[in-house]
Amino acid sequence: MTRRERLMATLNGKPVDRPAVCFYELNGTDQNPNDTDEFNIFNHPSWKPLLDLTRDYTDRIVMRPMKFANPHQSIRDLSAFHKTRLANGKLQMDYTYTLGEKTFTYRDVREPDVDTIWNVSCVFKDEDDLEYYLSFPDERKTPVADIEHILETERQLGDAGIVCIDIASPLCEVAQYFDMPDYLVIANSNRPLFHKALARAAERILREVEAFAQAAPGRLWRIYGPEYASAPFLPPQLFYEYVIQYDKPIVDAINRSGGFARIHSHGNLRGIIDYIAAAGYAGIDPVEPPPQGDMELCEVRQKIGSDMVLFGNIEISEIETLDEKAFTARVKDAIRNGYSKEGRGFVLMSTACPLGRVLSPKTVRNYEIMVEAVNQF
Q1: b/e per residue, 44-55, with b = 16+ CB within 10 A?
Q2: What pLDDT sits at residue 90?
Q3: Of 282, 215, 216, 276, which Cα lies nearest the Cα of 255?
Q4: Could you give the C-alpha distances from 76 to 80, 95, 96, 107, 174, in angstroms and in order?
Q5: How many domains does the chain have?
Q6: Mean local confidence (pLDDT), 279-290
Q7: What is the pLDDT of residue 265?
Q8: In what order do the strands lie in the sheet with 161-168?
């Protein structure tokens, strides 16, 4: 089978020649070792063997956002932006968002040798800020999907993989307005206000998904952010209220287009898995093993594996720290418990990606073991 055929058969619950293997955000397309920008960690020589392995031997899933000819203007889009190079080499990005008579400020920081952006302060500080924001009407427009970037990525991939359309859940959009402690206070203590914010975000996101799914049917989608409402952050009932109630119409729209909606939720699943099972998702990631999660992969397979593709189960910490013998046993265990000839399928996948500029030989070797293991299955 080609890599594309293998992934599509997995999504459709059809037989495959071997389990698929994916390195998550490492996709052989977006990581450019020739880009000399000092914030591009992938130009370090230690990355080349892993990037070559990813491009040539993994079942590539390339994540892409929705785009529109008439895009919604988010808070970040409407913010004034100023960046400062700090003495320690970090890049500080300051944003100013003016709405009516109020001005909000927030800040991000980026380090040259770490491939992530840290939100060190968020746009809203308390529920009064959220109330004020919601007092202004949201723009309403009929989204006009622009899928050229999807088609171009698929042309680049050929038979090597598939595109995954990547979107934030309504919960993720609202939760990211706040620092984590402030979000938890409001989500727990002022549910009517929080629902008001979620309903507003969900109404717009649903319209966008309906338009985009109609223009780009039959694709895999990832909906990220539901973990904001999983244990230990919020109780299962609030996961149902804040995730399932607002995600399900989005999932239904994807399903109607012949697409496959995958829920992305780190951490504990035991208290929420029944809600997830009933919502119509076609897949789930990253299915973290204990102690990062609270369910073994075999339990998740038994609970929902007949209806959902299981993606993941290999922690990045295991890739970076386990010796070859221990990691080989760990990977084989994941394949044995995740893969089934019956049910929707399994994609062996890391739960995250390395963030540092210099990769250790152990890390590269353990990624090689993931590829070897599926081919020896």
Answers
A1: eebbeebbebbb
A2: 96
A3: 282
A4: 8, 8, 9, 11, 13
A5: 2
A6: 97
A7: 97
A8: 20-22, 346-350, 309-314, 283-285, 260-264, 220-224, 161-168, 60-65
Query: Can you tell me the distance from the alpha carbon of 51 to that of 62, in angstroms, rounded to the nearest whole number?
Result: 14
Whether 157 and 99 map to the same domain: the answer is no
Shared domain check, 367 and 307: yes
8 Å CB contact between 234 and 265: no
Same-domain status, 16 and 96: no
Per-residue pLDDT at 225: 97
**Angle CA 316–250–172, to nearest 5:** 45
pLDDT at 212: 98
Q: Residue 134: which domain range? A: 3-73+124-375
Mean pLDDT of the chain: 97
Q: Domain check: are 19 and 82 in the same one?
A: no
Q: What is the pLDDT of residue 297?
A: 97
Question: CA-CA distance, 109 to 358, in Å (whole number)?
Answer: 20
The sign of the torsion formed by the CA atoms of 330, 332, 336, 339 equals positive
Query: CA-CA distance, 227 to 100, in Å (whole number)?
Result: 33
Residues 112 and 251 in one domain: no
From the list 248, 253, 36, the residue with the least C-alpha distance to 263 is: 248
> Is 347 exposed, middle or buried (CB count within 10 Å of its CB: 0-12, 13-18, 19+)?
buried
- CA 16, CA 174: separation in Å to the nearest integer? 39
The answer to whether the CB of 208 falls within 8 A of the CB of 72 is yes
pLDDT in tens, 317-326: 999 999 999 9
Rounded to an integer, what distance in angstroms lies between the CA atom of residue 119 and that of residue 146? 29
* 8 Å CB contact between 354 and 320: yes
Do 204 and 256 share a domain, yes or no? yes
H-helix or E-strand containing 301?
Answer: helix 297-304
Same domain, 37 and 16: yes
Residue 139 has pLDDT above 90, yes or no: no
Per-residue pLDDT at 189? 96
Per-residue confidence (pLDDT) for residue 140, from 0 to 100: 87
Q: What's the pLDDT at 342?
A: 78
Report the CATH number at residue 299: 3.20.20.210
Question: Do 90 and 219 share a domain, yes or no?
Answer: no
The type of residue at 135 is S
pTM value is 0.96
How many residues in the chain?
A: 377
